[in-house]
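Internal QA ticket QA-208
Title: Verify multi-chain structure generation after dependency bump
Assignee: T.L.

Test input:
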Amino acid sequence: MRILLVNDDGILAPGIEALYEAVADLGQVDVVAPETSQSAVGHGISVLTPMTVHRVHVNQVFHGWAVDGRPADCVKLAIHELVARPDFVLSGINAGANTGANVLYSGTVAGALEAAFYRIPALAFSLELSDELDFRRAGEVARKIFLAFVASQPEPGLCLNVNIPALDHGLPRGVRCCAQGAVAMQEHYQHQTDGAGRSIYWLDGRLPELDEAAVCDLAAIRQGYVAITPLRCDLTDERRLAQVRDWRWPRTFHESA
Ligand code: MN
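Actual output:
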């Protein structure tokens, strides 16, 4: 089995090293990841500039390709140029959960969804932030999830977003397969003036409060469960498609009409 690892925190991040160590014995593992942190770049790709790529040896643990690009670039470049086509793509382990609206901002998720474009089954792994980010333990959790995924013979292009709850107080209570939460971050900007007198803004956001009965990715990890959400590349809102189809759209764009 060939496994490709990618992430958005950069090839030197502890999360990808832990993921490598967790799955290294399961097959041929290739690592193609951004040279620097690319958190919150979403599904961006590099089209205006070329990318530099170099081979790195990280902490005597793994060799990989460091790409001066985005997570989605890494997956594309890996598949087209750098490594043999993988059977599975694993993205992460991200430092911080990717639930709710953050799924759209996440470079970690984009790495897995990019694999789905190529019809390769993929998992995105993220670990909820806490005082002690225990990536080694998160790696063990990720390994078990991955083995169950492989055993389930996922169809080509199946992409699962996996969020692991903070592990400071013990292992997860189990797995919850649930929808992406439709909850927005509570955001504001901190306005400052820099040394040159220019206005600068820093985005500051907090995860929202949830009511007890909420069922979604964020609620699951808050309750101590691993949250698993299948994602798709097609963002079409099928229910509303039927609704807007019946609206009174212009019948023609000719001026005479
Ligand atoms: Mn990140």
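Spot checks passed. The first helix runs from residue 14 to 23.
Status: verified.
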